[in-house]
Amino acid sequence: MIENPADLPILEAAERLRDGRLTSVALTVAHLDRIAERNGAYHAFLHVAAESALAEAARADEALGCGEDRGPLHGIPVAVKDLFDTAGMPTTYGSDVYAGYLPTEDAEVVRRLRAAGAVLIGKLETYEFAMVGPVFDRSFPPAANPWDVRRFTGGSSSGSAAAVAGGLVRTSVASDTGGSVRSPAAYCGVVGFKPTYGRIPARGVFVLSPSLDHVGLISASVAEAAITFDAIADAETTDAEPAASRLGGALSGLRIGYARKWFADDPETLPALLDAVDGAASQLSLLGARIEEVALPAAPDFESVGAVIIHAEAFEAHRRQLAASGDGYSRKVFQNILSGLCLTPEDLVRARHAAARLRDRIDRTVFARFDAILTATTLTPAIPFADFAGEAARWTPMRTIAFNVTGHPALSVPCGFANGLPLAIQLAGRAGDEATLCQIGHAYEQASDFAASKPPLPFPRAASDGRTQPAPSE
Fold first, then answer.
1. Are 320 and 123 in contact (CB under 8 A)?
2. Catalytic entry in 95, 156, 157, 219
3. Which of 229, 334, 375, 397 could form a disulfide with 379 if both were Cys (CB 3.0 to 4.6 A apart)?
4. What pLDDT is stored for residue 325 in this prediction?
5. What pLDDT does 309 receive?
6. Does the annotation mark 285 as catalytic?
7. Ordered structural domains, the chain, with CATH
8. How far from 177 is each of 90, 215, 229, 288, 324, CA to CA, in Å?
9. CB–CB of 123/46 below 8 Å?
């Protein structure tokens, strides 16, 4: 039996909001109390909008009482990555350069969340400008992994993953340019959902790489990710089914291509991860899907193309700001952005053409035969913060950027543990077919118990200067 309303899945909370067993105000208070209790250890929230959230919750209750129902997110507390503009609410894009900045308009996604009746409870920590991390030369610490607060969350949607895994919110909106939704979700044992490129509008989201930037979700379950997606995605411009439309559907007859060699042959792949993904393939077969190994283009091909696009476009986006306020950037982020100086416009054009060829090849050779791809998200569990000491950026092995390069939807779902730390599978689907992807992910999630596992209760973690830092609030 669930005793704390903050632990209720969204659909169960929504049912209670409508039959009178729960109010949005009570639900919001439960989440605010949870944040106050745990955020000192996780550092997931940069800003807690307590006063405005309670006012929004009261309005949500009043609307439901008058028969106005805006959908499943009506009255549900949500949080957004601090890369999204929020009118009148601090928005720093994870950087001291924007300390004290208050946007005058909401990002389009935030506007849609409000229109869906969601209660915006605050802003979540992000790697600086969604670049490299974690870094320790900002005025606030990086988010910590709830499974072991001595370890990183992955990035750049670091606070989003920590908040969901730590029980602070059930769902959050984030961004993914090379794996920034899926890898933190994998490291923190929650669901990361990167839809098809452009399915969720990016207006009002700080630009990293326009060719690869995706708006996505980090949620406690596949169903909650699908519900959140359906509330904010463009529906009028596509014939695609709602992502939640096939939840609970049988997998019989679905064909899944298992890209096993894509990660199994990598020397950095943890043996326990390979065993876990093999186990997931077996489970999906037992659920009725037809599993067959499939060959994808080499992972380094995607990574090379993605690296050129990100570094070239990020440098162009930051060129003027670097000249004006480069001393406000953390050192690793400054160095990483400057690497784009080495690239020419011709390099970027060639990389974009290569991305189009890779996308076409996947469509012709894989999605012409299969409904989805199964592979790994990251190749290891989360690593310690200590591994990021020093001036050089530290990269961790994953298989995520390929689906930013091609724009196909991809979903990360927990699939096991290694030494008490989460592992995850990744599913990728045809462009616009989020429904099938969520159908498969939800079926696997329901047949396993990994998503139901919760991290240990937190203990205070001191910041680098020895102080435990609580979240700021209104």
1. no
2. 156
3. 397
4. 92
5. 98
6. no
7. 7-447 (3.90.1300.10)
8. 23, 9, 17, 33, 25
9. yes
Read off the pTM.
0.95
pLDDT tens digits, 306-348: 999 999 999 999 999 999 999 999 999 999 999 999 999 999 9
The residue annotated as part of the active site, out of 180, 211, 219, 221, is 180
Helix%, strand%, coil% for the chain, nearest 5: 40, 15, 45
Query: Quick check: is 123 catalytic?
Result: no
In 3D space, the residue among 235, 100, 196, 215 whose CA is nearest the CA of residue 157 turns out to be 215
Neighbours of 65 (CB within 10 A): 10
Pairwise CA distance, residues 44 & 153, whole Å: 10
Query: How far is C-alpha 347 from the geometric centre of its chain's CA atoms?
Result: 29
Give the Cα separation of 186 and 271 in Å (integer). 16
pLDDT of residue 238: 64
Residues of the chain with pLDDT under 50: 460-474
Catalytic status, residue 81: yes
Q: Return the biggest CA–CA distance within the chain.
A: 61
* Catalytic residue selected from 81, 123, 194, 332: 81
Torsions phi, psi for 308 (to 5 deg): -60, -45
Q: What are phi and psi of 24, to 5 degrees?
A: -65, -35
